[in-house]
UniProtKB/TrEMBL annotation:
Classification lineage: Bacteria, Bacillati, Actinomycetota, Coriobacteriia, Eggerthellales
Family as reported in the entry's similarity comment: Belongs to the CRISPR-associated Cas10/Csm1 family.
NCBIfam families, per database record: cas_TM1811_Csm1
Gene3D superfamilies per record: 3.30.70.270, Hypothetical protein af1432
One family name in Pfam for this protein: Cmr2_hel_dom2
First and last residue of the signal peptide: none
Protein known as: CRISPR system single-strand-specific deoxyribonuclease Cas10/Csm1 (subtype III-A)
UniProt keyword terms in alphabetical order: Antiviral defense, ATP-binding, Endonuclease, Exonuclease, Hydrolase, Nuclease, Nucleotide-binding, Transferase
Organism: Phoenicibacter congonensis
Keyword Transmembrane helix: no
Biological process per Gene Ontology, one example term: defense response to virus
Domain GGDEF: 524-664
Amino acid sequence: MDRRKVNLFYGSLFHDIGKGIMRSTGERRKHPLVGADYLKKFLTELSAKDQEEILCCLKYHHAKAVLDVKQPVKDGLYYITYIADNIASGTDRRLTDEEVDQKWDSKTPLHDIFNRFGKNKTNNYISPNKLKFDKLNDIDAILPTSTRSDFNHSYYIDGVLHFGHGLQAMSFTEEYMQSALNLLEASMDFMPSSTDMEEVADISLFDHMKLTAAFAMAIQQYLEDRKITDYRSELFLHDGNFYKKKTFLMAGIKLTGLENFIYTITSKGAHKQLRSRSFYAKMISEWFIDCVLKDLELTRANVIYNAGGQAYLLIGNTVGNREVLKETQAEFNEFLLQNYGLSMSILMGVTEFSSSQVMKKNSFDTYNVIFSDIDEVISKQERHRLSVSQINQLNHAGKKRGRECVVCHSVDNVDANEHKCQLCMKLESFSHDIQNENYFKVDGNSEGLPIGPGAYLSVTTEESIKEGNESGWIYAKNQLVTGLRQQTYLWFSDYSEVKSNDFSSYAKREWTKNEAHGKTLGIRRMAALRVDVDDLYAGFLAGFAHQGEGKYTTISRYATVSRKISSFFNVYLNELLKSYGEKVTVIYSGGDDVFMIGAWDDILDTLTVMDSYFKEWTAGKMSFSAGVYLYHDKIPINIVARQTKELLEAAKLAGKDRVALFTKDNIFTLEEFENDINNHKLSIIRRFFDSQESHGKSFIYKLLTLIRERSEKDRISFARLAYFLSRLEEQTPKDEKPNFINFKREMINWFNTKKEIEKAELSLVLYIYETRED
């Protein structure tokens, strides 16, 4: 990469660090100068020219500062940073932007991004009092709260100290660009970008500076392509015209076939590689993005959204960039076709847009055009995935014959002894590494897992990296680290309560065994849970259209919302499950969905916990629906996945915020399940049956029979229930009769309403499941 591009990246990425530093010291100077003075001491290894180019981006990214430059240069990189800062902010910036008078509230904490999302305004904050830089925050510490806790000097000092410590270990070169992003996120993700009391402080310093760097690098590509060298004229003196030009491309990427690749495997050996297939598929997507960015000479700063095999990249509108996208897509699709046939492929849609389209005073319709154009192209590609040459290639190859892999049914490279293909054997051995290792590398060593043309994935160690033994690209799992050739971190929900992928232990329920009689408590079944956010795409586009006549509709808020939702499933779900000690295993977690298996009762507990936290996470403005499938541990995972998906789809068809429990007949809102079934009816049933000895399981089964015979049209079923309960009341011992009368009253009341008796039926079934002894 050209040195000036590297300078532009660092200058734009760090352009606003002076805000954090100024708030940590309390000094009353302009933050561009504070930031430049601070950064200068870390640039000593660079030439004087490179130092000056980076520092000028910090000093001169506001209009007044640009006007005050005594000897302006026409091709100064700071002009690019200046206009990129404007675009990332969504508006032409004020001439002064300093926290030196009473209109600035330098102690304001970061406001919740969902305050201006949806129709109803909320006033929540992200508390700064438990920030951690060496590991993930506890989710409870960063849930939005209506109570404001000042972001005082000490919190800024902690962040700035961490930032400075990271800078000392860095070199300002191309190889450390991703590390710079990681460091900035770890240090300034909870610091508000703006503390103007007249603005909404819901964008973090990290998000704003990252987006500024993205726009800056894309603008540089556009200018270079158009051979524009007078930046002062183009970007400053005539910036109004520049805002209207189609400077940018938004590239949408979708890896199709993820689900089939992960779940379409048979029972033998499936459990040994289920999670590794999920991780492997994620890595193919991540590596493709990194290959595209490398060829485009861009960084992860230009990734606006990335989760669940889908991504959006913000790049310069050039012919060369379009060609790079096409060529890289074609290379990867050829790789996927050769290795996995038609099971997976990469789709891509591209559309151009101007700065003015993503700045304030535009309705969400403007954004909708950008993303709908991309979707239209991707949908067309999905219908015509293969080129003519690829179709001919497949036709001439003929039908493959030979022994099938017992796991995935492939007939390619099947080992005669193991009866498994080479990929499945590698995935099995790799599964243990995924759960226990934190560092991975991609290089040309063919002993690893193939994840792209000439690229292979394998495990490495922190020691090997520090000793300089690795020549490939390094990925760290679930931690923000810096270092040479460090690629993006991998947020990956890999929580599992069992070791060595022994999922059958969830069904055996040994933790419930009564040592006296040797029996376990609870039905010996597993359950699968599938969750998917409701109307994410529509909400994503229209979420900020309602308040303030749409003035909060900015690309920075879109990026922040998508990152926050993705972080719930990919980052904090691990910590959430760990804190509750749930006996479950996460198989796959995307940006808005999750699939997990486990002990059936812990799966139900996990569902209610996730629902509660997700609603808090999004201020109650987003919801998810779910499907829960109960199954014997011998059932192949492909069937389990399919059945669970069908239940989820049935739940979504019934409306938002729904769960289908075990069958498509048991669909309730999540609130109904948690409050009315789990906390109310099931509690009443437990109290009654646990406090008496006269009526056992036969009584429950008779109740279930009467409930299932109930008919709205035939009132005789109501009389049968009343008669049955009255007869039993007569036979009930005197000391148990008050409890029975109360229970009888509840049952009759529930029986009178179709929805209530359906809830009571499920509650009775759950009680049978939890009290069964084997």
